[in-house]
Write a structure and sequence with these properties.
The protein contains twelve helices and ten strands. By secondary structure, the protein is α+β, with helices and mostly antiparallel strands.
Length: 374
């Protein structure tokens, strides 16, 4: 267990600090759970997307939703299965995303086959004719004139040749993906046709969106701090804030610099410091310190990582002591008049509209001195 420092102001120590690296471990059960969960999510969400596309499709939005769904299921599996390997996280996200896209278009292919009213024996004959070159079709006297006329049309020829998913995708590319909006209702052309090449580019973009979101979410989940000693995910504890000028000593483990808190310089910003610690309080487990800057956006404030380093477990009491000495006095100054006040607001008020780029980082209700915010 972490022992608190003795009363008074004991001297602070210098610690060896290394850049943070994900733990990287995994178990057979966790790996299997992750792969199966990602593939199952891809199958279910892809099939559902294929069914919904019978009536309407929100371009780029639905692929993003599918990707987030696959990523979310993978995130859950990573946490439950204790998967800390970012390689596995990326691989499973990619597999799940690709499987979702394949499932979606396979569902559309099956709909095409089931709605085709041409008798099977006739379809087979048309498939064989569609494989002939245009010159062979024209030279064959056994082919009826109306069939020759249909085979002259590239879309009809591609439609006759459909016998599996790749040939169906070729047929759809020949027809061309149409992008339409509410203003296109009633138009004869049905919206903008992307053409053959444009259709393949659009599908590639869908793959990138679905797989990219799923990969990103699972990568972030797998790289979260993990305690190898107790085999548990670490918990985030908000330590407090520090001037940007003190980032380097904090990154280098030079805690004696903080013996006397340095005042904020005019115009200087503060950064938010979070410690990810063993949930059981085992001081053998290293402490991962995350330093973030708050950046104002239209939606509020977003946390941007500046540095992520690892201290020895016994450094936690001294880190807490550093930020206990830096207690900020109450202030009524507006945000625009006080650099870094948004960070203090974030610590005091969990619902202050601040978003984090790192999932699972931030325990707003706990202060460095152990008190709970109301």
């Amino acid at each position: 267990m972490h022992e608190p420092l003795p009363p008074g102001r004991p001297p602070l120590s210098t610690f060896e600090v290394v850049p943070y690296r994900p733990e990287g471990g995994f178990t057979a059960f966790g790996s299997l759970l992750l792969i199966v969960a990602s593939l199952a999510a891809g199958l279910v969400l892809g099939t559902l997307g294929g069914i919904i596309s019978r009536w309407f499709w929100l371009v780029l939005i639905f692929p993003a939703v599918i990707g987030a769904g696959v990523g979310g299921v993978g995130y859950w599996a990573i946490r439950i299965g204790h998967v800390r390997s970012t390689i596995l996280g990326v691989a499973s996200g990619l597999l799940g995303g690709l499987f979702a896209i394949i499932s979606m278009y396979y569902m559309q292919y099956r709909d095409f086959e089931s709605s085709n009213s041409i008798p099977p024996d006739v379809r087979q004959q048309l498939r064989e004719l569609a494989r002939l070159t245009p010159a062979e079709v024209e030279a064959n006297p056994l082919i009826p004139p109306e069939v020759k006329q249909a085979l002259r049309d590239p879309a009809s020829r591609a439609g006759f040749a459909v016998h599996d998913l790749p040939s169906y995708m070729h047929f759809q590319a020949v027809l061309g993906v149409r992008i339409s909006s509410s203003s296109d209702v009633g138009r004869k052309d049905g919206g903008m046709n992307l053409g053959y090449i444009g259709s393949w580019i659009y599908w590639a973009l869908e793959v990138l969106i679905v797989a990219g979101i799923a990969v990103a979410m699972q990568y972030v989940a797998a790289k979260q701090p993990y305690c190898s000693e107790c085999q548990r995910w670490k918990k985030a504890r908000q330590l407090g804030t520090a001037p940007e000028s003190q980032i380097e000593p904090l990154k280098q483990g030079d805690l004696p610099v903080f013996a006397e808190p340095l005042p904020l310089q005019v115009g200087e910003r503060e950064v938010l410091v979070t410690a990810n610690i063993c949930p059981l309080g085992d001081d053998r487990c290293p402490v991962d310190v995350l330093i973030q800057r708050l950046v104002q956006t239209k939606e509020g404030f977003q946390q941007v990582e500046i540095a992520h380093v690892t201290y020895a477990g016994e450094a936690l009491p001294e880190l807490e002591e550093v930020f206990a000495r830096r207690k900020l006095p109450p202030t009524k100054e507006p945000l625009a008049e006080r650099a870094g006040s948004a960070i203090e607001q974030a610590i005091r008020n969990p619902s202050s509209g601040i978003k984090s780029q790192e999932t699972g980082v931030g325990d707003w209700n706990r202060r460095a001195d152990g008190t709970e915010n109301g």
